[in-house]
Amino acid sequence: MATQDDAANKQKAIQNRQDQHDASMQKGGQGSGGSGAAQTGVQQPSGDFPAQHLAKPGLEAQMELKPRFMAEQYKGSGKLAGQVAIVTGGDSGIGRAVAILFAREGADVAILYLNEHEDAAETQRYIEAEGQKCITIAGDVKDMEFCQQAVDQVVAKWGRLDVLVNNAAFQEHAESLLDLTEDRFDETMRTNIYGYFHMAKACLPYMKRGAAIINTGSVTGLKGSKKLLDYSTTKGAIHAFTMSLAANLLDQGIRVNAVAPGPVWTPLNPADQSPEEITKFGQSTTFGRPAQPEEMSPAYVYLASNVCSGYVTGVVLPITGSVGE
């Protein structure tokens, strides 16, 4: 049986092949200027970002410019008091920010992640600092057996399961469809959509009326992406899966929604784009900058809490940083 380290090494190998291909093409990065980025709330980083390229799956601890995930001005009010949540890909990025706010709202949180042990341990410390319990479980969501065992472990420990956040993802750009091997396409598909299917299937028997499933989609699933052919395909599938599962589970009182972020400053992106390209990350949005994870996480709280969104299901909520998307 393949391990989580095998999966991480496979993803690094895909990345290395693409990096070598990019170098052979001798293409420089391009992007619009970063001046005049919009700030409508807490002041967030803008302008050119550090020219950095991370090895997959990408450690937040190694990022030169650390993502902002604490949402210090967000005050919890018990919206998830006494509940238990699972967040896949919860070690860093959007998943970390969501897990911390869930804890601030009173939930105990299980973090599922691939092999980014340093990031997962850091996220656990932040959750426990919010006064809630946290466990971290390493494994590969492509593996249904792992997903089932992880969910069983969470329920055995805490006796319930109220919220699932499907967030784990694999992304690697390609200039051409011809660059996408069967193996590479399969890695993206099995991580991004099979992983969501596996987790939802494993969690469903434990979920009761009032429970919620939240999937992380993407603006690329709404409008496509020239260089993310396989990734954007999976995100479109996630949106359709969300709406279909929402209709399927409504009679059971379980809501299913998705958030479709635009560019967000997480390890996923410097682990994909070249150092030259990443400096201009997010500057093509109407805001002129990428979002920070803390600008995404309150939406997940809203969709998790049946007090806030009890009449909302089957929605793909776009938070893209661009007008009309």
In brief, what are we looking at here?
It contains 10 helices and 7 strands. The chain has 325 residues and is of the alpha/beta class.
Describe the structure.
Belongs to the short-chain dehydrogenases/reductases (SDR) family. Keywords: Oxidoreductase. The chain has a single domain, classed as NAD(P)-binding Rossmann-like Domain (Rossmann fold), CATH 3.40.50.720. The chain is α/β, with parallel strands linked by helices. About 2% of the residues have low confidence. It has a seven-stranded parallel sheet with strand order 3-2-1-4-5-6-7, with helices on both faces. It is built from ten helices and seven strands. 49% of the residues are buried. The N and C termini lie far apart (41 Å).
List the helices and strands and how they pair.
Elements: H1 4-25, E1 84-88, H2 93-104, E2 108-113, H3 117-129, E3 134-138, H4 144-158, E4 163-166, H5 182-203, E5 212-216, H6 219-223, H7 229-249, E6 255-261, H8 275-278, H9 297-304, H10 306-309, E7 316-319
Parallel strand pairs: 1-2, 1-4, 2-3, 4-5, 5-6, 6-7
Helix pairs in contact: 2-3, 2-9, 4-5, 5-7
Q: Within the largest sheet, what's the order of strands?
A: 3-2-1-4-5-6-7
Number of strands: 7
Gross morphology is: globular
Contiguous runs where pLDDT drops below 50 for at least 5 residues: 27-34
What is the averaged pLDDT score? Answer: 90
What fraction strand? 5-15%
Helix content: 25-40%
The number of domains is: 1
* Class derived from helix and strand content: alpha/beta
Largest sheet: 7 strands, parallel
CATH fold description:
Rossmann fold
Instruction: State the CATH superfamily name.
Output: NAD(P)-binding Rossmann-like Domain
Order of helices and strands: HEHEHEHEHEHHEHHHE
Distance between the termini: 41 Å
CATH architecture term: 3-Layer(aba) Sandwich
Q: Provide the CATH top-level class.
A: Alpha Beta
User: Number of helical runs?
Assistant: 10
